[in-house]
Amino acid sequence: QVQLVQSGAEVKKPGASVRISCKASDYAFTTYYIHWVRQAPGQGLEWMGIVRPTSGFTNYARKFEGRVTMTRDTSTTTLYMELSSLRSDDTAVYYCARDDLLGALHNWGQGTPVTVSS
Amino acid sequence: EIVLTQSPDTLSLSPGERATLSCRASQRVSSNFFAWYQQKPGQAPRLLIYGISSRATGIPDRFSGSGSGTDFTLTISRLEPEDFGVYYCQQYGGSQTFGRGTKLEIK
């Protein structure tokens, strides 16, 4: 059974950076794209971008370009999402999710709450 | 960017009733790159339907998806108590976008 296990909750000050990990297991790690999606409190889902584990290819939502970096470590089958220059409106739960090679998100991590507050 | 508009915002129904949720896209969605998700409080979203009408693994057949072009529908034939939550539509034909959600609540 596909597992995506994310790192724990974070509290950051405005202007700082946060790095979240997503440990993938029980499937062919290099085959499927991983997406990052966030959800602000009481709000809907917002797609942030995608990373291809084989090559490290990334495609970011325009809103996050310049502030987000998505990477992977094939030796540990772990994905990372780093968001910099944090603002209060970056407070959200951040999810990693695995797609089906077309874009539907079949498997999700448990989510990582990030709070940005001075 | 394709904007997805879901309706209604909230749907109040009783167990056993039929639920119909709608999602309209601002532009034609490429191929069949359209999905529906269910989310319950404190949980990650769960994929229900992908490719407009294919049920994801483990999803009961009371859930069905339909539509094409810019108009899509999720139907739940007979509501079970566990079906209440928030439902999101998604298009993944280009840069992915989600709708703002429909809350399905117990009447």
Chart the SSEs and their pairings.
The complex is a heterodimer of chains A (118) and B (107).
Chain A (H helix, E strand, L loop, with lengths): L2 E4 L3 E3 L5 E8 L8 E6 L5 E7 L6 E3 L7 E6 L4 E6 L8 E8 L5 E4 L3 E5 L2
Chain B lengths: L3 E4 L2 E4 L5 E7 L8 E6 L6 E5 L3 E2 L7 E6 L2 E6 L8 E7 L5 E2 L3 E5 L1
Structural class estimated from helices and strands of chain A: mainly beta
Please tell me the overall pLDDT of chain B: 95
Radius of gyration of chain A (CA) equals: 13 Å
First-to-last CA distance of chain A: 40 Å
Category from helices, strands and their pairing of chain B: mainly beta
Word description of this protein:
The complex is a heterodimer of chains A (118) and B (107). Chain A has 118 residues and is mostly beta strands. In chain A, 0% of the residues lie in helices and 51% in strands. Chain A contains no helices and 11 strands. Chain A has strands at 3-6, 10-12, 18-25, 34-39, 45-51, 58-60, 68-73, 78-83, 92-99, 105-108, 112-116. In chain A, strands 2, 4, 5, 6, 9, 10 and 11 form a 7-stranded mixed sheet that branches. In chain A, strands 1-3-8-7 form a 4-stranded antiparallel sheet, with no helix packed on it. The mean pLDDT of chain A is 95. Chain B is mostly beta strands. Helices cover 0% and strands 50% of the residues of chain B. In chain B, strands 2, 4, 5, 6, 9, 10 and 11 form a 7-stranded mixed sheet that branches. In chain B, strands 1-3-8-7 form a 4-stranded antiparallel sheet, with no helix packed on it. In chain B, a hairpin with a 5-residue loop joins strand 9 and strand 10 (97-98). The chains are: A mainly beta (118), B mainly beta (107). At the A-B interface, strand 5, strand 9 and strand 10 of A face strand 5 and strand 10 of B.
Name a few traits of the molecule:
heterodimer, A: 118 residues, mainly beta, 7-stranded mixed beta sheet, B: 107 residues, 4-stranded antiparallel beta sheet
Provide a concise account of the structure shown.
With 118 residues, chain A is mainly β. Chain A has strands at residues 3-6, 10-12, 18-25, 34-39, 45-51, 58-60, 68-73, 78-83, 92-99, 105-108, 112-116.
